């Protein structure tokens, strides 16, 4: 994928927002909503929402074919599979077979095809550009992540009740929080209060 940066602004339904960089585009995508108790965080309500998400940096995919309801359903299925697989890896558990199968199925579809522009220095995506191709590219990125050298760096945030998952690509491998301005600062504040209470 041509993405060079990752990260999105996440919004809490109770108010507030913060920038979260999962370290991989496929993991950013996994945080666009969810099932069960995570349904309150849903951002992909209709096909146009998926088209808008794909168009944003870092992926920058402007689909030339309208996103269908079927593609939206496929996107949510892939998102759930990535979420489950990432959490399984973070917990050092055996991978969920259904999640692996869903990721493989998405990856088996035709991916985005990079295309050099006439100026010979910039790149875009070969037309026609469909949402399914972007899903295939993200599934392939997840496969590379799970089978590559950073697989052991996939982690869940160490914050209390924070399920956000990320790949720690920092050199020291010491990232613990989804974001310092969120769970990192909350941890510091709790630690400071605990020290003050001991005095």
From TrEMBL:
Domain Zinc finger CGNR: 153-196
InterPro entries for this protein: ABATE, ABATE_dom_sf, Znf_CGNR
Superkingdom of origin: Bacteria
Protein name: CGNR zinc finger domain-containing protein
Organism: Nocardiopsis changdeensis
């Amino acid at each position: 994928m041509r993405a060079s940066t990752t990260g999105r602004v996440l919004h809490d339904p109770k108010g507030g927002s913060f920038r979260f960089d999962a370290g991989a585009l496929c993991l950013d995508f996994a945080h666009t909503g969810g099932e069960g108790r995570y349904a309150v965080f849903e951002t992909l309500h209709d096909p146009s929402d998926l088209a808008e998400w794909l168009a944003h940096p870092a992926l920058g995919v402007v689909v030339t074919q309208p996103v269908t309801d079927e593609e939206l359903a496929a996107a949510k299925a892939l998102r759930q599979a990535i979420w489950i697989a990432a959490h399984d890896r973070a917990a050092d558990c055996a991978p969920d077979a259904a999640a692996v199968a869903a990721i493989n199925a998405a990856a088996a579809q035709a991916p985005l095809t990079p295309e050099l522009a006439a100026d010979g220095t910039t790149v875009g995506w070969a037309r026609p550009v469909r949402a399914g191709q972007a899903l295939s590219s993200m599934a392939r990125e997840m496969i590379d992540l799970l089978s590559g050298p950073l697989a052991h760096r996939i982690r869940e945030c160490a914050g209390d009740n924070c399920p956000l998952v990320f790949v720690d690509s920092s050199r020291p491998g010491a990232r613990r929080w989804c974001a310092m301005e969120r769970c990192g600062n909350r941890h510091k504040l709790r630690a400071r209060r605990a020290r003050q209470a001991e005095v």
